[in-house]
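Record format v2
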Amino acid sequence: MTRYLLLLAMLFVLASCKTMRPISNLEIGPTASRYLEISSLHSGIASSNLLRVGLSGFNTSIQNREVRYRFAWLDNSHFEIPGLSSRWQYTTLQAKESFSFEMIAPTPSASHYKVYLFDVK
Amino acid sequence: MQKQSTIKFSKAAALSLFMVLGVGCAPQTQLLRSGMNDMPVIAGLSNSDFKQAASEAVQSMLRSGSVDRSDGKKNILVISSILNDTMQRIDTDQLIKKIRIELLQSGKVKTTTAIGLNGSEDVMNQKYSQLSLSKKINKNTLVRQKLTAPNLSLSGKIIQRNNQLKSSSQLVEYYFQLTLTDLSDGLAIWEGETAIRKVTSSNSVSW
């Protein structure tokens, strides 16, 4: 009986280890989330083997909004890969207009990504 | 006597106070860390501007497919003339080195340091061939050199234009123009231009 309980406990532990918490690909700041509507976050391949990511949305605010955003590129082990394409960028979103950003990963080893979008203030 | 010593003491106190205020009001040296949100913006070209221009150029090259090859080999790039047509004394390597790093990281382009407009960028490429003449060198450890010729060339120009807006402000525009040439036929396979605009006081100088 003890052996079976032990086996069951081991199975539970292994199952929890195998199940990785899914990583959300988009993080929007609390201020930005009040006026931004994200219509799509999509990915593809550029230059035959580089990850390419695009983000589209709409500024629902009646004012122009200054935001900062960055694309973080992750390898298979979810370590971030540095590069110019992952630095913070600043832009102004026009009032009541749609917007889109896109970026190509710096290296073929980038297999995952995460996009950060915050209000400048 | 007492009056003279009082005057002397007053002068010393005033001088001390002046020095303390002078040191306290002097701008403190501050380390600017990469990624800080409030990096100072200057009228001239800064590291941020070179990063912006380099990033846009590389992204455009990758998006266009101009550095793709179907034979699995990497392109070999040589840096040609990058003209500085601004009023500033800048080292164009501030732009080019960033582009080279990104292209190398992409796995599609390598840059030759053995061939250049003014000879080798790395003179060790030439010095190495002379090692075989030295009796001190173990000949078994020498690697036979076979330098690779470039097939792509990167050239360009950085332009500055100043325009008066109002009596108190001016518009300073920088244009980073770059061209990627296929050396096999001398044709441009990619061209790009990044514009960076700054509005600054008419009194500020961008050089």
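The mean pLDDT of chain B is 89.
Chain B has four helices and five strands.
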